Amino acid sequence: MARPWRVAVVGGGIAGLAAAVQLRDRAPDGTEIIVYEQSGALGGKLRTGELAGQPVEFGAESFLMRDPAGGESAAVALVRRLGLADRIVHPTVGRAALALAGRLRPIPGGTLVGVPGDLATVTTVARPDAAADRDEGRPLLGPDGDVSVGALVRSRFGDEVVDRLVDPMLGGVYAGRADDLSLVTTMPALARAARVEHTLVGAVRAAQAAAPRAPGAPVFGTLAGGLGTLVEAAARASGATLRRNAAVRELHPTPAGWRLTVGPTRDAEQVEVDAVVLAVPARPAARLLAGPVPELADTVGGLDYASVALVTLALPEPELPELSGFLVPSTEGLLIKASTFFTTKWGHLRRPDGLALVRASVGRYGEETSLQRTDEDLAATVHRELSAVLGVPLPAPVDGHVQRWGGALPQYTPGHADRVAAARAALRAGHPTLALAGAAYDGVGIPVCVRSGATAADEIITALEGSAR
Predict the structure, then answer these.
(1) Which contacts of 391-397 are long-range, i.e. CB under 8 A and separated by 24 or more positions?
(2) Is the separation of the CB atoms in 294 and 304 below 8 Å?
(3) Distances (CA, A) of 4 to 22, 282, 357, 464, 467
(4) Tally of CB atoms within 10 A around 53
(5) Strands 63-64 and 220-223
(6) Residue 349, class by beta-carbon neighbours within 10 Å (0-12 exposed, 13-18 middle, 19+ buried)?
(7) Given this model, what pLDDT does residue 1 score?
(8) Number of CB atoms found within 10 A of residue 446's CB
(9) pLDDT at 149 over 50
(10) How far is CA 336 from CA 94, 171, 178, 341, in A?
(11) What is the DSSP string of 398-445?
(12) 313-330 pLDDT, tens digit each
């Protein structure tokens, strides 16, 4: 009789936890799953804390409800699997604005991450160059091509659409620049359409038509009580042995699977497993790959990251517009790049005493020196800049929190998807019981990371089933 499988998941973020849940659901009974997390907390960039006596997100705040094809997103599917569907709540205010020239202007609707399918809709914030989007008799993008989002949009719509609309929207997600970020990785639906369509307007419209959204259907959701409940429920449902403060330092292949070196050098633990899901950021993944597959370490470790700080202020009865928040183009010269009015956006967070929770995101790729300020300086600067953008002096905060996320947001340069595909193909050929998962490979956002983790688990199960024959 074959012995039960033993699988290690390295990384206790949402991708790693999703992998563990999928393994529990699909692997044979008796499979032992061990999750190793270097820090003391599971969940990665999902972190629910408390401010002014109520739960508040110090990391990711929401998830997309639908997947790119229009179906239920992987995050929603996991929420249902964990029995938390009744906790899903949606924004009560969805309108957001751009901070431009000292005033807030509504973000035009109907765009694809700021890229318009109708140029007339964005004239309130930018002057598009309509004449540049000519049909030149061939698709915008070759069959295997990739370009930066900024390069494509600038060449077709001009600089203002990028600088005033696309760049701040991508910056809000990636803390990066449209001119550096891969179209294929950050906007895959538009990239697919661009391989067929001859104009950017046509490509945007085709991408939107391929994933229609029912009128009034919510785009985003979160969980009442905080996304920490998703982390806790996934950890429980996985039935895994959870090893916090357990750094995996080395990874070596063995005739039967893998040997992990865990813990400090002077008191290292050697652990034998049949398979490994590697769900950590690119650089620690590269260090672990350097032993068994050194030819992949440089490829995986070449991914760069941006650092950000999230400054949350509890303000007594401030004058806030009826907006979910606003984005700030880098050309405006402000430290903050985005702000969310939590207690306006999310009705379930509103308080009868009028206390408002406002969060600002600070830090853009290449501007890490701005994060070298003290927490007090960051909070004071955010308070001052929020007051300037809103045009009214905000009251002094009664509480505050600064969450720093060093090296948190991957910067996907053109060709990223091909590099990842090649790395995974090499692993399947040479080491099929080692799988990669997480934002370093497949994109940011809770649904993408959940799907990435589940897919990695499926690959491990397929490999182990094959080796048992």
Answers:
(1) 391/103, 392/318, 392/319, 394/315, 394/318, 394/319, 395/315, 395/316, 395/317, 395/318, 397/313, 397/314, 397/315
(2) no
(3) 16, 30, 49, 11, 13
(4) 9
(5) antiparallel
(6) buried
(7) 40
(8) 28
(9) yes
(10) 20, 11, 17, 14
(11) SEEEEEEEEEEEEE--TTHHHHHHHHHHHHHHH-TTEEE-SHHHH-SS
(12) 999 999 999 999 999 999
Q: Which residue(s) pair with 223 in the sheet? A: 88
What is the pLDDT of the chain when averaged over all its residues?
94
Please return the burial class of 138, using the count of CB atoms within 10 Å of its CB with bins 0-12, 13-18 and 19+.
exposed
Over the range 370-396, which residues count as b (16 or more CB within 10 Å of their CB) and which as e? ebebeeeebbebbbebbeebbeeebee
Model pLDDT, residue 68:
81
pLDDT in tens, 8-65: 999 999 999 999 999 999 999 999 999 999 999 999 999 999 999 999 999 999 999 9
Paired strand residues for 459: none
Scanning the structure block, which residue is given the tokens 């270097």? 38
Say if residue 132's pLDDT is above 90.
yes
Query: According to the 3-state scheme, what is the secondary structure of 128-146?
Result: CCHHHCCCCCCCCCCCCCC
What is the full DSSP assignment across 69-129?
TSSB-HHHHHHHHTT-GGGEE--S---EEEEETTEEEEPPSSEETTEESSGGGGTTT----
Answer whether 0.90 is exceeded by the pTM.
Answer: yes
| DSSP type of residue 148 | B
pLDDT band, residue 96 (cuts 50/70/90): very high
Whether the Cβ atoms of residue 462 and residue 435 lie closer than 8 Å to each other = no
Per-residue pLDDT tens over the stretch 106-122: 999 989 999 999 999 99
The count of residues in the chain is 469
Structure tokens, 117 = 């399918």
* CB-CB contact of 419 with 409 (8 Å): no
Residues 6+ apart with CB under 8 A from 358: 312, 313, 315, 318, 320, 339, 340, 341, 342, 343, 386
**Cα–Cα nearest to 76, from 273, 218, 260, 283:** 218
Say yes or no to pLDDT of 142 above 50.
yes
Q: Distances from the Cα of 409 to the Cαs of 230, 262, 358, 406, in angstroms?
A: 21, 26, 22, 9
CB atoms closer than 10 angstroms to residue 321? 16
State the Cα–Cα distance between residues 65 and 422, nearest whole angstrom. Answer: 30
Rounded to whole angstroms, the Cα distance separating 91 from 100 reads: 24
